[in-house]
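Reproducibility note. Readers wishing to regenerate the assembly model reported in the main text can use the exact inputs given here. Chain order matters: entities are listed in the order in which they were concatenated for prediction.
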Amino acid sequence: MPGILVYVHHDEGELSPQSLGALTKAASLGGEVTAFVAGSGVDDAWAGSLGGHGAAKVLVADDPALAGGLPQPIVDAIESSAREADVVVFGAGVVSADIAAGLAARIGAGIACETTEIAMVDGGVVATRPALGDTVMVESGFRGTGIVLARANAFPVNESPSGSAPVERVAVDVKPWSQAAKPAGREEAEAAGVDITEADILVAVGRGMGGPENVPLVEQLAKAIGGEVAATRAVVDAGWVPYSMQVGQTGKTVSPKLYIACGVSGAIQHKVGMANAGTIVAINKDPNAPIHEFADVSVIGDALTIIPKLTEALTNR
Amino acid sequence: MNIAVCVKEVPSGTSHKRLDPATNRLDRSGDSELNPFDLHALEEAVRIREGSADVGEIVAVCMGPPSAQRALQKALALGADRAVLVSDDSLAGSDIAGTAHVLAAVVAKQDADLVILGQQAADADCYVMAAAVADHLERPVVTQVADLTVEGSGIRAKRQTEHGYDVVEAPLPAVVSVSDAINTPRLPSIKAIMGAKKKPLETLSAADAGVDSGRVGESGAQSIVRAVAPPAPKAAGVTIEDSGGDSASQVVEILAGKGLI
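Running the prediction on these inputs yields the following structure tokens for the assembly.
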């Protein structure tokens, strides 16, 4: 069995469910899997709890330079452990992807992104990803150490972990240039009144809605159909609606009975957060938009025209 | 300060994307275009120039086949002052690590204080190039930046993670990738398109660029495509061509039929 190392990300002690899922997946391949966590003042018992998610051993990099949650110091910390591994697995996540990318450059490793399946084939690790708008599945193997970066929500978390794994502390040498970037604060997510993960019906606003002045059209449709409003990253980044309404890789994962996507292109980052919805209705004037590839009902047309009519038709029922 | 923007040529959004069954590489024979995500990187460079920062030059850097000159012409029309294309048969089939090595090698020769990339390439859907290039250059990196400010000799960048918005500060020289929500790219004027033809566009071989030949091309690739297969079949959806909002009643009917309303 090859040596598998899994980087487990955490945000000030809150373990990433994406990392935990990747760890459990790696452990299911049959060999002994080593988990790697980095931070400052890491508690042994907390790190050891990763045994409940499949780790046979946990490597801990503990250094004040690893406290800020930025990726580059962690590349320095994991580098030597990674060089000894045959494959290094990362769960999805913005910081995890940055670490995986930096590590690939550092050790000259191949990297497989957006991985949705990991398997052992002829003694080597094979990573499979959907590519080209999820129209084809591509299986990749590696020469030398391989780096596997999972797609968001590809691997479920073990919800009833038990047991612990032995913890070993590794030497850390963080380079000065890796510490040049400094965290300068976090903007707390603005709270919306509702938790969109609980809604049976979601009406999502995407950039195809034109501008924030058109968000009320989507709100009216949501009201008429008894649902809540959700959004893509693009419109949240642009300040149309609060972050708490965002669906996708860096937002919420939802699985409502009905998801009506208004002016949403259906980029992978959004798709991973809503692909499990029961019925997906897409309203988008671009016939080439990826969302039309996986929607159950694709309406090719101008969302700004259609949505008020849809609201009216629902209200008049 | 000088800015380098790394760009890529990708198959155009309207062309049919497929893998060449003979090579398992992306079939690039159809129409191609400048990666749409890179428009935001170029726009941000121009925006920085128009702001308070004193920008000497903006250089667009690309690795690709000779046809990528067209993508670079567009970059020049959008505000780059000059462009550098690394084009060499030996680079075909390079993986992510190899491509990052090439881009870093070229950028290192450009005297750029700030390197800007788009958040991802529209063909590969990976968002790892900026952090890989930064590691080669040994410079700080902030990826998927939604708001960028150049302040004196450093940058202040806001970016979205799974926990909301983080603000990161870094000294120059630095590398960033920008979110597609950071700005709205302008369309080039006819004058800018014509003017782009007079701007310098340099083509380098891999050797000119200082590329380590062992790390690039198919032979240098550390990840190898083993097989390509169709995805699991999914029930085809219903498609409705709307005209003036006439689809609304059909959608209501379908939703009622499914018991959703």
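We highlight two features of this model. Chain B has a mean pLDDT of 93. Chain B has seven helices and 15 strands.
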